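Async update (no meeting this week)

Hi team, since we skipped the sync, here's where things stand on the single-chain job. The sequence we agreed to prioritize is pasted below, unchanged from the tracker. I ran it this morning and attached the output directly underneath so nobody has to dig for it. Comments welcome in thread, and please keep replies under the output.
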Amino acid sequence: MAKLYVWNIAPYLPEGRWRVLLEGLPAQRCRRALSCRQAEDSARCAGAGWLLRHALDQEGIPPSAQVFTQNSWGKPALLHASAPQFSLSHSGTWVLCAVGGSPLGVDIELPRCTIQLARRFFHPQETASVEALPPSMQPEALCRLWVAKEAVIKAEGRGLSMPLSSFCVQLHASGACLAPGSALPPYRLHEYRLGAYRICLCTEENRPVLTFVADAAPAAEAVPEPPHEK
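Output:
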C-alpha cells in the first residue's frame, strides 16, 4: 500500500539550522545539500533526505540497510530488490516522500505555471482544455496539470528523456486521470491540496491519506556557517 509523508521544515530554515538534518544521511545527499547556492534549497534537500530516512524506517528498513543505486536515467532506488520504491518532492517549507510497492511519483507546487509554458511543453489537448476555461480558473488548472505530469514522469523514472507532451492528462471536478489510450501503465493520479499548494501522487495503488510527520528530527538549533576560505 502506498504511503505519503508530509513534513514542514519551517523551523530549519533560519540561521543554518538545516545542517542538523545532515547527520546520518548518505554522503551524496549531504554533498547535494551543501552545494546549493541558496540556504533554503539546502534546507529542502536535507529535509527531503531526512524524511526519506524516516519513511523507510517506518517501513522497517533501518538506516544501515538504506543503500541506494540509480537507474540509467538517474532515478534513485534502494539497492535491495525487495525494498519499497519511493519518490521525493519539495516546495516552500514542505517536503514530501511517497513510498509503495510499485512505481510511483509525487510532486508539489504552487500555481505559477503559465499558459505560454503549457503551449511550449504540454500536450495540445491539455493546452486547449486550459484555454477553454475562464482566465480566473486557468492558473489552478495549469498547476494541477503540472504536478500531475511531473508525478507521472517521476513514476516512469526516465527523467527528461520523456517529454511532457508525450502523454495527456485530463482534469475533472472529481480529479485528474490519464487520457484513454495511453501506453503508460494503469496509473492513478491522486490529487491533494495543502493550503495554496497542489500535490499529485502517481501510482497504481489506492489513494493514501496524507501522513503529517511530527517534528522528530534533531533539535533545530542554530548552526554556525563554516568559515570561508581566504
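Quick observations from my side:
Residues 222-230 have pLDDT under 50 and may be disordered.
The helical segments are 27-35, 39-58, 115-121, 124-131, 138-156.
Reply here if anything looks off.
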